[in-house]
Amino acid sequence: MKTLIIMRHAKSSWDDFSISDFDRPLNKRGLKDAPLMGACLKEKKIKPSLILSSPAKRAKTTACSVAEVLGYPLEKIVYKESIYESSLYNLIMIVKEMPKECDVLLLIGHNPALTALFNTLGTFTLDNLPTAGVVALGFDTAWHEIEAQKGSLLFYEYPKKCRG
Q1: What is the pLDDT of residues 76-90, one digit of tens each?
Q2: Are strands 152-157 and 134-139 parallel, antiparallel or unpaired?
Q3: What is the extent of the structural domain holding 78?
Q4: Is residue 34 situated within a structural domain?
Q5: DSSP H helical segments within the chain, as ranges?
Q6: pTM (two decimals)
Q7: pLDDT confidence of 140, banded at 50, 70, 90?
Q8: Does an H or E element contain 86, and which?
Q9: What secondary structure does DSSP assign to 40-85, as a single string?
Q10: Which H or E run includes 130?
Q11: Domains in the chain: how many in total?
């Protein structure tokens, strides 16, 4: 089984409008929520084969925080420029091109593309994947054979739920 874990970056700061969108950092809540979601994934015994992230600062910080909690080596995180401001089609192609050795892919990026990806590949829909929200889909096929509405929901977590 292949597992696709889709995670939206944690809450970013809008304090300084002179900073470009790409360089926006996480705010205080985001800095707390990213490791919280990493701990939530660790409780589920998630061990990513690959963490693939947007290189935007808020996504990168989220990826590093989650990786640290999961014990995933920071130097093995792959940053892919095309995830930033990505289209649904691009994200589907990224997933389909994963090597067969990769069993668990943790994809960290941005809305609206991540919500669209989940809604396309899964069997139910979300209005909006919240910041630091995580959804996991399981597929009984190889990555290159993944099709729309064929992913079974494994879990859906978000910070408010994990905080209890």
Answers
A1: 999 999 999 999 999
A2: antiparallel
A3: 2-10+20-163
A4: yes
A5: 28-43, 57-70, 88-96, 113-121, 159-163
A6: 0.97
A7: very high
A8: none
A9: HHHHTT---SEEEE--SHHHHHHHHHHHHHHT--GGGPEE-GGGTT
A10: none
A11: 1
